[in-house]
Amino acid sequence: xxxxxxxGASVLALLMSAASTWAADKEITVWSWFVQxxxxxxIDAFQKAHPDVKVxxxxxxxxxxxxxALKAAAASGSLPDVIGLQPxxxxxxxxxxxxxxxxxxxxxxxxxxxxxxxxxxxxxxQMGNPKGxxxxxxxPQESQVLCIWYNRKLFEELGIAVPKTYDDLxxxxxxxxxxxxxxxFQGAADGWQNENVFLMLANQFSPGIxxxxxxxxxxxxxxxxxEAMQAWKGLFDDxxxxxxxxxxxxxxxxxxxxxxxxxxxxxxGSWWMQESxxxxxxxxxxxxxxxxxxFYMPPVKDGNKASPPVGGIDIGYGLTKNDAKNEEAxxxxxxxxxxxxLQEALxxxxxxxxxxxxxxxGDITDHVKEMSARFMADLPKAENQRFASPAVxxxxxxxxxxxxxxxxxxxxxxxxVDEATQKALASK
Length: 428
Known about the structure:
It is found in: Periplasm. This protein is an alpha/beta fold.
């Protein structure tokens, strides 16, 4: 009898061990800078549809925390199952640790699934891949369009009209400064925000020129790009950006000041609509977004047009090569980018969809609907926002910082970007 009890206990122990292992395999880990409250809604919706999979999410502020955490995890071989990515330079840094997802997407959505992704997003999904590599290493969740947001209440109180010319922009900045407000907050310690503003400027002088420069088809020292770099310096010298911008961060500092009504303008993007879902007392004008609207950078040179829409993939996700968990991880990624998880993010107005056929649902004001419709109309014609090579993006970041600080002349700064581009292209 005792022997039978011993065998039974052993079998039970084995079953419990197997169940524990199975449960561990069904738990996936996700890292990104995606808003934690919104991601939790996406996770809850996913787990309701897939109760056998547990998702553990770790949020990081994008710069520098997330970038630093990814580098450390990649170096130690401890990346999570799913990682948030931007296309081009960031995705390429981790391409060797990522599983191509072409076959999984075709199985999930059919052979023509790419046609449902907006054109600028499709272009960005393979940015920086080695020659002949047609794999996708990230799946886009959301799109964005870059713009200048402004505080409608401050503009009304100070008698400021939406700037149509560069002189208008300087005059608006002067009135805001004299009124005790920050004119246009620039987190110039963050390379990403500097890149965004430079792209707005460069595409005024020649739409698509940065893509040509990245591809080696146009030198970075082309007159249009030199003029764009001079205009970038002018935003500091002419008082459009705040004093001390070179040491400032867009998040959390700039965003919080903008929320609090202390900033007149800020170069952000369509993702700022999510502020309408944050309840008071954040500020009296943030809730429901009634206090905000947007415009595109006015022409900085006579004869130019206002900046065209610039954008593409806001955030995408990649599968790391954690083979044992990739079935469950892909199931989550698919729902997050084109399923129940995406719908929750859109309902929170986190940003625009990357796949066509989706729209936010729920309690959304007419003003937000109107702004969202403007963004969606501009998205299909957006110029590319991303950089294919990490080295080129870093070189441009350094050039922008040097010119802003006055330590580099525009043409010399751009020459260093051209050299980085030639080196990157030669290594492919």
